Amino acid sequence: MQKRQNYISWDEYFMGVALLSAHRSKDPNTQVGACIVSAANKIVGAGYNGLPMGCDDEQFPWAKQGDFLDTKYPYVCHAELNAILNNIGMDLRNCKIYTALFPCNECTKAIIQSGITEVIYLSDKYADTDPARASKKMLDAAGIVYRKVQTNLPNLVLSFNEADV
C-alpha cells in the first residue's frame, strides 16, 4: 500500500491555521488570522485581529467610519502583532509568519523587529495603498522575503462530524 497522495502542503497547512484563527475575530467587517512557524515547521504563535486582553468586545466600537475614537482603528490589535505577542516565549528569529492579509506598515515593523524572516500571505487587496507600499519598502530594506501562498485548493472544509474522522 502506498501513502496517501492528496495531502496538503506545509504552506496550505499553516495558512489553514491562520485562516482558522481568523474565525475567532469579533470584527464584523474583516477577520484576519496569522500563524508563526519555526524553521522546524512547528507552530510557535497564532493570533487574530481583536481587542487587547481585558478590553470588553461589547464596550468598544467596531465601526469602520466616523470620528477616530468611535471606530475600531485605535483599539484593535492586528493578527500579526497578536501572533508575535502570543508566541510561546521563544526567539522568533528565522521564523515565518503566515497571514491572511498582507501586513500593514505597523505590523511590518513588529515582524522585522521580532526577527521573522519570511512573510507568506493570502491576499494583498490593499497593495495600492501607502501602508502596503511602506510595508514592502521596509521588508525589502530588511531583506525579508514575502510571497503570496501558492495553492490549487479553492477551499478546505473542516467537519466536526465525528463520523468523518
What is the chain-wise order of helices and strands?
HEEHEHEHE
What kind of assembly state do the chains in view correspond to? single chain
Arithmetic mean of pLDDT: 96
Low-confidence stretches are none
Helix content: 25-40%
The structural class is: alpha/beta
Q: How would you sum up the major sheet?
A: 5 strands, mixed
Beta-strand proportion: 15-25%
**Broad shape:** globular
* End-to-end distance: 21 Å
Compute the number of helices. Answer: 4
Number of strands: 5
Q: How many whole angstroms does the radius of gyration measure?
A: 17 Å
Q: Strands of the largest sheet, in order across it?
A: 2-1-3-4-5
What does this protein look like?
- With 165 residues, the protein is an alpha/beta fold.
- The chain is 26% helix and 16% strand.
- It has helices spanning 10-22, 79-85, 105-114, 130-142; strands at 33-37, 43-48, 96-101, 118-123, 145-148.
- It has a 5-stranded mixed β-sheet with strand order 2-1-3-4-5, sandwiched between helices.
- Helix 3 (105-114) runs parallel beside helix 4 (130-142).
- The model has no long low-confidence stretch (mean pLDDT 96).
